[in-house]
């Protein structure tokens, strides 16, 4: 019986629930004996010139071993994203100018961590304040330029040309609106952390909280001017990433440099406020959407104009509008689509990937556009969607509108919409809504529908894996993916067990060590199963073939007559055989492989959100959310459901709660969890998960990514539901997050009443 598709309980949980995880800050590795502790002196200004730094008082403080400023460093500033404007580099410690609140200005090393902040407070930095640039439109206008040598605040542009004036000529109805996809904090429960120690061999060992060890190694090596072979990266347990921990943080390189300079190991763990002001943040787009079509419900043209916020120094976030443009039309077969994106720097925290990374922004835009179009023509929003989705017989389907188009592998979009509507009892919900409106209830019902497609594994199609059977019958799996909550230890053991027939309890999965696994692309973009998992599956299959070849001589049988089951190679139809462990005892029994799909996959789905809104207070509460999230055949329903739950929760949270806010001077107003809307289970309903599986032909198990799907579908569904609840009062749009104040203000602005 196959283990694939069964609900296998996570094998990693007993350790987490008993001993607990070992995060970077928990490490007791002997290489870190006598480590110093790094505290960063951070800028209190969003923008200003540094006119002087006095560190003498700090150097004399108790426990201080050394204090460094940017003038002491002999490493060049880092260009965090290679395609960005090359003048917009980030110094490891600011020297002449600061560009966001929290930018590191000096580094203090102390014997004990508690001594660090006291000493950091003694560092005197003189600033000449400069105007803050918070608004993206102001940044584009360029009245204040952050990088004088660049001469512009434009970090990157995608098809920055004039739009076609005739795009909507054939349309009977055209609707346009500017919408905001607000900035979010990744807020992992484990903040950024790193520790570095140099060996006598001239190599540095870097322990870090990251989503991919190999990329972190290469980035740190590049920043320090080292051969990557001289950088050994080890990832302990990682307490959440959500995209913000992809690769290396510049502070990782600083930690390594400091350890080399002082001749002692150095450790760094940031505080929660430092994390909320300094770690890469997500989203941050102003989108102008225009949609046109016929009154009968056919959409003929769509335009998406994106202005994106890179923050102070362009990082991965500067590239993500590429995906927003590439996925602009979503699930819809729209004849004419055009898009462009411009990315600007502002005096705020830099942006990077956040669960979905460019794709949720595209879905939020097109789904809002479809709702606005449906409202304008007076048609049910679910019906408008079904009329315009890509038909099943058109796959593979190449999209229009940007980035050269995306080639969707498979999809059953209308089927997904029908399934979720049926599971939600859509007709009954609309009847209940009509009754509440007729009665003039204070609490109105809103129903939001979204249909989405997303790209998974984009740009990282290949992954490495190795599977080895040992003489004691145990198995080691080496993988280039590294988990931070996804359940790889369980899933990869299942994939190996499927071929080998060895119980998963005897299979150990190892990852996150560049000496052990020198090649790998890590965990992001919902790529793990369809690349890393398939690589393990492929390696285990190759190991079976190797074992059969070696057993053939021992058993005096042809390879074709052999089979592997329950960890044993046997001659078909007989009891004659040899254990895999016996073969491993004679000679190493290992298979190394690289799997390359050559292209990404495109999971899809549909969500229905049911929201109650108190029209007197503006408070919105999600009563139900029903989802179809089709990622192909499911390896382990328990893990897949967990990924869906997490994604849906974060989607709801963006729609209703989360927003990073800066004041006009660039001061962050959401620097703690006391100020940043962050959900617990109490704020979320139970989720109704509807199953649907459409395999991809791009890998042998047919799997697509599932890690970000829930986020992409839930956000627009909940936003639409809130707007729908008060649409009879004249409200057409409410920007996220739909807080009580924002909903109440929309009702007042529309002049609506509930009488």
From TrEMBL:
Keywords: Molybdenum, Oxidoreductase
Pfam families per UniProt: Ald_Xan_dh_C (PF01315), MoCoBD_1 (PF02738), MoCoBD_2 (PF20256)
Domain Aldehyde oxidase/xanthine dehydrogenase a/b hammerhead: 19-131
Name of this chain's protein: Xanthine dehydrogenase family protein molybdopterin-binding subunit
Upper lineage: Bacteria, Bacillati, Actinomycetota, Actinomycetes, Pseudonocardiales
